[in-house]
């Protein structure tokens, strides 16, 4: 039990009129326990209180996620989570399909909830594709989460210029910020985006520099960082999601393990990013047209006439798994 910042619990209690209840926010999740902040302290080793039916089913403590506001129950032996309040949003990691993975994750893994702003980190020394970026953008736009793309390790100026030009050419309105921990540039600009009382999450692959950025924001070396492997793949540094208060801004930031792909707990709406293709598809002969080999496809016709970029259609298919 530690005396700390309340991570927005007091504001949440006032909003929900829960003054007399023991309310907390999950700030860290390990394998089967949580760290939960209240207005007075942080409780470690908090467990989920399971019902009799849950126990019979062999349920594990994986129902809740970092960012959740929860009600608590204190007993002589332990602190328990009773239930979770309605989430504003929840992000999840897509199941693993890698052949080298011994145990394939059959279900999506929850990453964080109640997020106001997402920083999507793209490193200059890692592989970049617009289709991968668009999958993230579709996900976060669906939840009305403010988005900022961080081009990390921007001291590699030529590659940084390339990434910015590629993204801005397709999405000129997207907020893009260059960051270099080595030169300590871009950190103040990040702080300006961290509004008091809001929760931001850093998303990106291992080795993209997420923990290094957080160290600069916090002003300490709280997170141990590792070098990137020769093949450009990051060494895993952060092994769990955790919320960290940023003293200078009065806001909170969620550090996450490296994420190769993101998913949502509900179907996304592709028209948030591909409205041009969605509009064209209304004139296709078939309502469920995949714009591949179907006859009288208005989308393919637009490509033939030069009215739609073929690469954009290719990325649309990838986002939709076509």
Write the layout of secondary structure elements.
Elements lengths: L8 H8 L6 E7 L4 E4 L4 E7 L3 H6 L11 E6 L4 E6 L5 E4 L15 E5 L3 E7 L6 H13 L3 E7 L4 H14 L4 E4 L8 H7 L5 E5 L6 H9 L23 E5 L4 E5 L6 E3 L10 H7 L16 H7 L5 H10 L3
Helix pairs in contact: 3-9
Main location: cytoplasm
Pfam families: RsgA_GTPase (PF03193)
Keywords: Cytoplasm, GTP-binding, Hydrolase, Metal-binding, Nucleotide-binding, Ribosome biogenesis, RNA-binding, rRNA-binding, Zinc
Quick recap:
The protein has 322 residues and is of the alpha/beta class.
Descriptive report:
The protein is α/β, with parallel strands linked by helices and 322 residues long. It has three domains: 9-84, OB fold (Dihydrolipoamide Acetyltransferase, E2P) (Beta Barrel), CATH 2.40.50; 90-264, Rossmann fold, CATH 3.40.50.300; 274-319, Ribonucleotide Reductase Protein R1, domain 1. The protein is built from nine helices and 14 strands. It has a six-stranded mixed sheet with strand order 10-9-8-11-13-12, sandwiched between helices. Helix 3 (130-142) crosses helix 9. The relative contact order is 0.12. Residues 96-106 and 223-238 have low confidence and may be disordered.
Number of structural domains: 3
* CATH homologous superfamily caption of the largest domain: P-loop containing nucleotide triphosphate hydrolases
CATH architecture of the largest domain: 3-Layer(aba) Sandwich
What letter string, H or E per element, gives the SSE order? HEEEHEEEEEHEHEHEHEEEHHH
How many angstroms does the end-to-end distance come to? 50 Å
- At the first level of CATH, the class of the largest domain is Alpha Beta
**Strand-residue proportion:** 15-25%
Largest sheet: 6 strands, mixed
Total beta strands: 14
Which structural class matches the secondary elements?
Answer: alpha/beta
Q: Please, how many helices?
A: 9
Give the radius of gyration.
Answer: 22 Å
Helix content: 25-40%
Low-confidence spans: pLDDT under 50, at least 5 residues? Answer: 96-106, 223-238
């Amino acid at each position: 039990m530690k005396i700390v910042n309340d991570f927005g619990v007091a504001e949440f209690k006032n909003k929900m009129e829960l003054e007399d209840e023991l309310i907390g926010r999950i700030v860290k999740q390990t394998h089967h326990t949580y760290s939960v902040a209240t207005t007075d302290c942080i409780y470690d080793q908090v467990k989920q209180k399971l019902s009799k039916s849950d126990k019979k089913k062999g349920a594990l403590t994986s129902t809740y996620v970092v960012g959740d506001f929860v009600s608590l129950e204190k007993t002589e032996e332990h602190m328990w989570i009773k239930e979770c309040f309605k989430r504003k949003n929840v992000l999840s990691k897509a199941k693993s399909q890698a052949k080298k993975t011994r145990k394939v994750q059959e279900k999506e893994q929850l990453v964080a909830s109640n997020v106001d702003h997402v920083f999507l980190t793209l490193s200059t020394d890692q592989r970049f594709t617009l289709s991968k970026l668009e999958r993230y953008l579709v996900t976060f736009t669906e939840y009305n989460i403010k988005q900022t793309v961080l081009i990390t390790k921007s001291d590699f100026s030529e590659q940084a210029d390339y990434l910015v030009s590629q993204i801005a050419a397709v999405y000129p309105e997207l907020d893009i910020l260059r960051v270099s921990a080595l030169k300590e540039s871009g950190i103040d600009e990040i702080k300006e985006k961290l509004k008091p009382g809001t929760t931001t999450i850093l998303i990106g692959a291992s080795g993209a520099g997420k923990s290094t950025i957080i160290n600069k924001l916090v002003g300490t070396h709280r997170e141990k960082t590792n070098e990137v492997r020769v093949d450009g793949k990051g060494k895993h540094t952060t092994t769990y999601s955790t919320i960290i208060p940023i003293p200078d801004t009065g806001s909170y930031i969620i550090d996450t393990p490296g994420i190769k792909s993101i998913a949502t707990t509900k179907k996304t709406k592709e028209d948030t990013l591909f409205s041009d293709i969605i509009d064209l598809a209304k004139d296709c002969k078939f309502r469920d047209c995949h714009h591949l080999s179907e006859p009288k496809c208005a989308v393919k016709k637009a490509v033939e006439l030069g009215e739609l970029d073929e690469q954009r259609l290719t990325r649309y298919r990838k986002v939709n798994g076509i």
